[in-house]
From TrEMBL, chains A, B:
Keywords noted in UniProt: Lipid biosynthesis, Lipid metabolism, Magnesium, Metal-binding, Transferase
Protein's organism: Dacryopinax primogenitus (strain DJM 731) (Brown rot fungus)
Official protein name in the record: (2E,6E)-farnesyl diphosphate synthase
One GO molecular-function entry: (2E,6E)-farnesyl diphosphate synthase activity
PANTHER family, alphabetized: FARNESYL PYROPHOSPHATE SYNTHASE, FARNESYL-PYROPHOSPHATE SYNTHETASE
Family statement: Belongs to the FPP/GGPP synthase family.
Pfam families in alphabetical order: polyprenyl_synt
Gene3D superfamilies reported in the protein's UniProt record: Farnesyl Diphosphate Synthase
The EC number(s) this enzyme carries: 2.5.1.1, 2.5.1.10
């Protein structure tokens, strides 16, 4: 067998932790005296919904802790940071299972959405709750004695509520069945991406690792957030851009944001830059499940030079975030610039 | 104006706390810079779903604390215990909003279920999450400095997960669209009622008050649970019994458990006591949306003497629970028998 590359190795080691967590959760339910069909159901819910994504959020807890420590992690540190990483993945699974119901989506990660699996249906709502519930069960059984246990709980609660707020404004701004571009604005787009994505995808994993590294200074958490929230915003703008301009063979899907009436960066920039005539066309074509309408939207996107504006936005974001990273005064036991550089370098000019 | 009765007064004082909590939650969202439509939506979600029930669970936190203290509560103690009571009501609202979607229910507390309100639909799923999220926001802002803060968090997490487990086994045991009485059993009925109802309705409010009263001894929590779980089970058996045998003018609704294929105490006792011929009839008539089928089920319930068996069950439960209450050794700063007597006396031989 060929040697594993570093990246594959890293992923395989992280992935190997999940079955242990699953076993622990199932054993808890067995201990409550639940019948076999309930155990199997919960097991299948965990397996179907928690792994199977890119796992970047989860793995970044481990990576960040390693950078903060400045040396390889002990077995125990690895396991505990990977457990926190899996809690981030469980939180995401809770959001995705329910988001797919709210959006009446068809597929997720190359398989049918959980609620569309035969026999599941609306039970998926309670299954989403149980994915969230699993987080607190795991945190309690592995971190209850740590001084920062309560900080982990507060952080998960706060991040969950922020994400729910982001989901709310997304849902009421861009319902698929009621198109009204007057509801859109770059300010709302920013709120949506920060609350719905940036907090849980970027700040949460780093802050979890910071607590494990023993960081207590609230100013350090504030500084991390002040870098990671713009970084997460930049990441989501890229996601919106690539939905329209990425190569399907790179991004792994054909973008549907225009068809789905998404309050994306592209349409908000176009709305701010277009002529009254272009606006009239956008009003008539955006969010329609029709490829001719979609093509007309894309024409206007080109006419107002979305690609040029994106290139400028990307350069500006990159420079701003780099400046924020340079502003970190590294002290022993404190933040390290490399934590943030690692994120930025993975993201800058990405095409997938 | 006529003097308020004690009961009305008690309810009015508890109810008056909710607008303060709502204001605090909305002000938090305002501080995040969210637009007016998001504020209004969240406000409406809170108002529509949190108050409006019987509030027994919430008020029992206050009552229990008062009994444990043995004297009237200070203004601050009243407020904080009522806040915990409202957190129990918020937890219930989170469960009910989502349960109504999963059960495709029509009305709740005399108004349309939230998901059936014009313009809400599946956004109700995220709204349910936000009702749960509100709990942790309120706990943090009022209890973060208390030594038992982390105990409150653990208790809410544990209770939430227990209720979700109860909901899971209920959902897979008695789906409305697939009738199979072989799935039912008294053992499963017991698991469903304990996990889905007893923990959050009976143990949670008392344990919250115990933490506020400064009780730390784990044995006291264990003893409270050992009384309140059978008490909650007895309460739910009554609920099932009254669904069939209660007077609609007392219980405020016409029971539909038989039509809805519910895994209720009545049918489980009937299944354990019936002849093969009666079983055949039950298989053909239980869970059908048909009043003739319902009448046949009720005939068998009478033939196997559900009312007599219920009277025996009630007497036996009453005596068992009374015995458990008598077993409490009252010590200063510890449990008080009156906490449990207060619950039992409200429940014993209730007709509504
Ligand atoms: Mg979606
Ligand atoms: Mg969505
Ligand atoms: Mg996208
Ligand atoms: Mg229901
Ligand atoms: Mg139900
Ligand atoms: Mg009932």
């Amino acid at each position: 067998m060929a040697a594993l590359t570093n990246g594959q190795d890293r992923r395989a080691r992280f992935t190997a932790v999940f079955p242990k967590l699953q076993k622990e959760l199932i054993e808890f339910v067995i201990a409550q005296g639940f019948p076999q069909e309930a155990l199997s159901w919960f097991q299948r819910n965990l397996e179907y919904n928690a792994p199977g994504g890119k796992l970047n959020r989860g793995m970044s807890v481990v990576d960040t802790l390693e950078i903060l420590r400045g040396e390889p992690l002990s077995e125990e540190e690895y396991f505990k940071s990977a457990l926190l990483g899996w809690c981030v993945e469980l939180l995401q699974a809770f959001f995705l299972v329910s988001d797919d119901i709210m959006d009446t989506s068809i597929t997720r990660r190359g398989q049918p959405c959980w609620y569309r699996v035969e026999g599941v249906g609306m039970i998926a709502i309670n299954d989403a709750f149980m994915l969230e519930g699993a987080i607190y069960h795991l945190l309690k059984s592995h971190f209850r004695k740590d001084s920062y246990y309560v900080d982990l709980l507060d952080l998960f609660h706060e991040t969950t509520f922020q994400t729910e707020l982001g989901q709310l404004i997304d849902l009421i701004t861009a319902p698929e069945d009621h198109i009204d571009l007057d509801r859109f604005s770059l300010r709302k787009h920013q709120l949506i991406v920060i609350y719905k994505t940036a907090y849980y995808s970027f700040y949460l994993p780093v802050a979890l690792a910071m607590y494990m590294a023993g960081i207590q200074d609230q100013a350090a958490f504030k500084q991390a957030q002040d870098i990671l929230i713009p970084l997460g915003e930049y990441f989501q703008v890229q996601d919106d851009y690539l939905d329209c301009y990425g190569a399907p063979e790179f991004i792994g899907k054909i973008g549907t944001d225009i068809l789905d009436n998404k309050c994306s960066w592209n349409v908000n920039v176009a709305l701010a830059a277009c002529t009254p005539e272009q606006r009239r066309v956008l009003d008539e074509t955006y969010g329609r499940k029709d490829s001719i309408c979609e093509a007309k939207v894309k024409e206007i996107f080109l006419a107002v030079d979305i690609p040029g504006k994106y290139a400028a936005y990307e350069q500006q974001s990159y420079e701003k975030i780099n400046g924020l990273i340079d502003g970190i005064a590294e002290t022993p036991g404190g933040l390290k610039r490399d934590v943030f550089r690692a994120f930025l370098s993975k993201i800058y000019k990405r095409t997938k």
